[in-house]
Amino acid sequence: MANKAHAAVVRRLIERYGVKGGENTNGFDVHVGDLIIEVETTATLQEAVIKLTGTSGRRFVAMTNREALEDAMAITRATDIGVMDPWGEIIRAPELAT
Hints:
98 residues, 3 helices, alpha/beta, 5-stranded mixed sheet, Rossmann fold, 32% helix
């Protein structure tokens, strides 16, 4: 269910983190080493958190727009999943919030 915003964010993250397209074959938007990033909208955020909860490593949700960051922070607050903005800037690191 990728849209233009999703594709643009994935492309930016791939460029930023040096991942070559086609290397990701495990169902995540970006996966290199222990870094796993799922690009999401507010509508798909909850599903992504559930999906990432079953994995290990440095896990992030990257939102397709800045307006969704507040929702992402709220939903991931009690998890060890980090949050990124649409440009790959870390808003909250992937560690358990206290």
